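Dock S-adenosylmethionine; give full complex structure.
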Amino acid sequence: MSQRGSGYERKALDLYDTPAWVTAPLLPHLPGVRAVWEPAAGSGKMVEALRAGGLTVEASDIAGGKDFLTSAPPVELDAIVTNPPYMLAREFIERALLLMRPRGLVAMLLRTDFDHAASRRHLFSKCPAFARKVVLTKRIVWFDGPKAAPSFNHAWYIWDWRHRGSPMLAYAPAQ
Ligand SMILES: C[S@@+](CC[C@H](N)C(=O)[O-])C[C@H]1O[C@@H](n2cnc3c(N)ncnc32)[C@H](O)[C@@H]1O
């Protein structure tokens, strides 16, 4: 997730760790999911939170030699969940959707306005699998230290190939 314009210095490969409180509210929105691939795992913060929720998680990252955009997925897989590098977010979503067809689920942590762009309609209003947006009502602080400050607003975007009908909206923590 890029943090340009928020006072954050850009880190190489967008290596931002997602705090556990951000991943925890996603868990109730993963019905029937047991086996997850976190393909941009970084230092593993999101992986830890998913495992703490009882999920079996396969973790990889380009830093460990596995490029999500070109690598084969694990054999056992119900869902792909990650916080993608901002500059590759569209490519990550498109590839994840392709890999999870025809029955799986995709969850990506993105800025709350990521679904506004006309160029991304094929991922949202024109995508039958787009099932849910879970808006985080607190802003994320991406690192500790004297310069730490909240950044942009974020949401979980969830695609589920079993979904039918319009996408749903939820808030976390619940209001
Ligand atoms: C925003 S960090 C997310 C880290 C972790 N998912 C989390 O939320 O704590 C983005 C991660 O994407 C990885 N990355 C960048 N390009 C990638 C690619 N093509 N394939 C796999 N991982 C990639 C970076 O190395 C970095 O660890």
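Observed: The radius of gyration is 15 Å.
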